[in-house]
User: Fold Inosine/uridine-preferring nucleoside hydrolase domain-containing protein from candidate division WOR-1 bacterium RIFOXYB2_FULL_36_35.
Amino acid sequence: MIIQNNKTTLVSPSIKRPLFTNPETKILEYLIKNRPAHPQKVILNTSPLEDLDETAAHITAAALQKLGYIDIQAVIVNLYPSEKRAMVAHQELALLGLHNIAIGKGSNIRGRKVLRDDEFAELETNIQPHFEEATNLMMNILINNISYDQRVTLYALSAMTDFAQLFSGPLSQYPGLANRKIKEIGLMSGVTTDKFGNLLLRREFLTPNKIASNNTFDYASAQLLYKKLQRQNIPTSTLSRDGVYPVALDSSIFEELGEHPLVSRMKDMRKNLISSFFRSALAPVGNQYRGTWDESKDIDWFLHSPLANLGAYEGEKTLTEVVSDLETKRKEYDKTYPEDPDISFDEFWKYASATYGETVYKSAKLVPFYDPLQILTSIDPLKNLFCPKIVNIRGIEHKIIGLSSKESGILKAEEIKTTLSAVLKMGLC
Assistant:
């Protein structure tokens, strides 16, 4: 690729483009026929390179902008290092033909993964865009770019720190402005339920659970944002993982998407993500690689969970045999390094990764697209594909898709899958 005049251009005109199936073509024709008179103004909050979902969200947004459904006012980028991640967002949007999108540099909250310097190597260009501080950028947009009859939709697709700062800081100094300028906020999140999946309200309010990554990046901010939104009567639409798993796409989607550089990025990130989940499941509680996973999320759980999606395991051993072998090897390394559990785990992980890593990756057949689905849930012609749980808080409806595995909120799974794949392909064209 070459970069000229702040625009990224693919060198080869013969690059393989996505091919649309007949059902995908019909979906796009339906969307074109039913496009709104005015696109919905939106602000996205993402964290590029955290996982493939961020890139997929940018692709989805590009498609919906091309189709006339949304008008992207800004992309707010957070998680450490937010300035470098903002550069990634700038690059990805340029690759998608979106060259003039304002990008706000958000908070430096620590993400789930530690990014290496080489992951930013391709950003060494002569382009040095200016990134405005996130809260200032959002306030400027709300005051100057948003009219009362065309309110903006916010999408929280990463840590909720910056949106929480917006509502608790400068926005609070303008009484009524949020209600006049903000239509709703889409939360890629999850709410608190009991062990049976029943909704739990705390003092008659929805609260974020401690499972969703976007909640746990900065849980205090997630709590604050939920509270501010409900007390200020801002409608919310929450999508949780239980609403995403039923409409996960087959991993063949990456081949169908063609040879775009962002597809290569997503494929690489997916492989790294599955590897990191595999390592987290093997790590003992307290180990740095365990992260926020509790002791119930062991290797047996992982291999049978939607994270691995091993519906068609391709190894020579059964899953039971794999678990047994790994537990045996773990004990052997613990005996070899009784005084240093960290070294013991590092050596154990080398064995597990070398022996089963590639098989686990190849066997993971399904790809859940969380952030793209969250964006699609607010598109009017697509709302009939979902049946969210409606919770009335102080006279305002709050929608929840994926309250639990038994109450997924998915009404027409196959149509949603077709729409997802069609929109992703459209974004890359």
In short: The radius of gyration is 22 Å. The CA atoms of residues 51 and 221 lie 21 Å apart.
